[in-house]
Specification:
Immunoglobulin-like; four-stranded antiparallel sheet; mainly beta; 2 domains; single chain; signal; Por secretion system C-terminal sorting domain-containing protein
Amino acid sequence: MKTLFTLAMASALSFSALAANEDLKELSTVNSNYKKINVTLKGGVGDAKISIIDQNGKNLNNRKVHVKDESVVVPYDMNNLPAGEYQVRITTEDEEVSYTVATMEKPIPVADLPLMAYGKAKDNNTINLSVIGLVEPGVEVKIISSDSGKVIFEEKIDQPDAFKKDYKLKSMNAEDVYVELTDALGRTKTLFF
């Protein structure tokens, strides 16, 4: 009978610890947005310790918080660390939960990327121009004399993604000109032959 009572008590304690662990899981959330991590603890958590741990198990940061009746958001800026998976461990006096979150680099805005354009002389009087990776249609092409700086030909090409075009030069060699390109986003590129 004593053994049965001990077994029942051990089971009850194990079940209550499991239920408490589920409670902390319900009272906490962890979200990441690029290289920012937000840990939200809802009212009722009480005293807690938040730990950020890297992929190698190294503890990067510990922070103690006290949560009364209102939710608390604890932000972490991970910009000085490499993108990857991190573990967020939340510990109270009775419970512990862990979350795995992934951080990633924020993509570079298209307007900050260079204009992708290439040119080559096909022969003495012909230049070939290739432009790729356009987001919006519209590229202004100017062929300019290297000697005088005057525009000898100008056109606007409204291809949506990319284009390739040959230009025949009259009474000039390819090495006597250069091309200035400006796309719809204002990005520019100068090509010499």
